């Protein structure tokens, strides 16, 4: 079989699996209603993480308040949709609404990872015109409506097996990287290793990597703290999870349905995100109670890390998506 044929077959099988998962009957059945049903997807199986809790709260609120308007009857996860598929399954309407990290649309919108490095909270981004611009770009390039984001204000931290005292101590360390942290890890002189979230525990335990960069709210429920010894302060970035709606589904909604979903977007950015931020701080304290040692970089080094993290992500994005990055930066940073 030719390579192109194998690739096409793989894609077809992937789509078939997603559709099968979404069409499987729900326990107890679902009563028919006049509401618009949005089959959904969520990026991680870690339902106890704050991202998982926040997303489920959003889904429950939509289903509670949206009876007869909009409903989310089923949610598929990473067991059905791979990381590389998420943006495309929403683009193509295989799922009509999904939540996943902003950098996962980087293949369709080069530079989109900069949404991990915003310094203005979502409400200020809206006022500055960032959402207007993001919605134009997402609609044009991905056939997606950018609804909202959540998780802002809970920075990623370096979690390491070896103690560091200065930024120079990062040199040569093997650290799991993501698209958002790749350039920073490289600039620190460390060796970035790419792997899925589900592989980090075993890879760190076995010494394949010597640390990772993740938020408290992921490290605690997944027990990743058991395979490292140190948490480094300060944190870097303000990563957020996007809530995206297929543009065709968005256009098929009537005015009342779109207005309702906009309200749900404000709900997840407001109440859900406030609780997310508070609980994330509590989780940070809990990690120290469980035995992690806090490493606080000296102020000069901390300031330098902050500058490096911003320069790394914005600088890299300017090379891959200069128009998008240049237009967005003054709308989302101070």
Task: Describe, in plain words, how this protein is organized in 3D.
It is a single chain. The protein is an alpha/beta fold and 334 residues long. It folds into 2 domains: 8-153 and 239-279, 3-Layer(aba) Sandwich (D-Maltodextrin-Binding Protein, domain 2), CATH 3.40.190.170; 156-236 and 284-332, Bacterial extracellular solute-binding protein, family 7 (D-Maltodextrin-Binding Protein, domain 2, 3-Layer(aba) Sandwich). The chain has helices at 3-23, 50-65, 86-91, 122-128, 130-142, 182-187, 200-205, 216-219, 247-252, 255-289, 299-320, 322-332, and strands spanning 36-37, 40-42, 70-71, 75-76, 97-101, 144-150, 156-160, 174-177, 191-194, 211-214, 230-236, 241-246, 293-296. The strands form 4 sheets. A 5-stranded mixed sheet has the order 4-2-5-12-6, with helices on both faces. It has a 4-stranded mixed sheet with strand order 10-7-11-13. The protein has a two-stranded parallel ribbon with strand order 1-3. Helix 6 links the parallel strand 8 and strand 9 (191-194). The protein is globular, with a radius of gyration of 20 Å. The termini are far apart. Residues 1-13 and 25-32 have low confidence and may be disordered.
């Amino acid at each position: 079989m030719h390579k192109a044929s194998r690739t096409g077959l793989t894609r077809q099988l992937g789509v078939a699996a997603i559709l099968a998962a979404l069409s499987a009957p729900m326990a107890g059945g679902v009563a028919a209603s006049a509401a618009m049903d949005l089959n959904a997807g969520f990026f991680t199986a870690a339902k106890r993480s704050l991202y998982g809790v926040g997303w489920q709260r959003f889904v429950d609120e939509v289903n509670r308040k949206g009876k007869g308007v909009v409903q989310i009857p089923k949610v598929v996860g990473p067991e059905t949709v791979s990381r590389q598929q998420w943006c495309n399954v929403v683009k193509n309407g295989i799922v009509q609404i999904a939540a996943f990290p902003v950098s996962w649309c980087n293949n369709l919108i080069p530079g989109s990872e900069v949404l991990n490095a915003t310094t203005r909270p979502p409400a200020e981004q809206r006022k500055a015109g960032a959402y207007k611009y993001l919605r134009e770009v997402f609609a044009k390039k991905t056939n997606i409506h950018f609804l909202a984001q959540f998780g802002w204000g809970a920075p990623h931290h370096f979690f390491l097996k070896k103690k560091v005292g200065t930024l120079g101590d990062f040199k040569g360390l093997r650290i799991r990287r993501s698209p958002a942290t790749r350039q920073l890890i490289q600039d620190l002189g460390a060796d970035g290793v790419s792997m899925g979230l589900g592989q980090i525990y075993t890879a760190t335990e076995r010494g394949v990597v010597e640390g990772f960069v993740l938020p408290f709210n992921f490290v605690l429920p997944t027990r990743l703290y058991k395979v490292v010894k140190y948490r480094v302060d300060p944190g870097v970035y303000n990563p957020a999870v996007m809530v995206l709606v297929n543009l065709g589904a968005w256009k098929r909604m009537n005015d009342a349905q779109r207005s309702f979903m906009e309200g749900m977007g404000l709900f997840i950015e407001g109440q859900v995100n406030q609780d997310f931020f508070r609980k994330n701080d509590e989780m940070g304290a809990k990690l120290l109670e469980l035995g992690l040692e806090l490493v606080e970089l000296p102020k000069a080094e901390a300031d330098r890390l902050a500058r490096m993290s911003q320069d790394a992500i914005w600088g890299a994005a300017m090379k891959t998506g200069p128009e998008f990055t240049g237009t967005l930066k003054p709308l989302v940073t101070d």
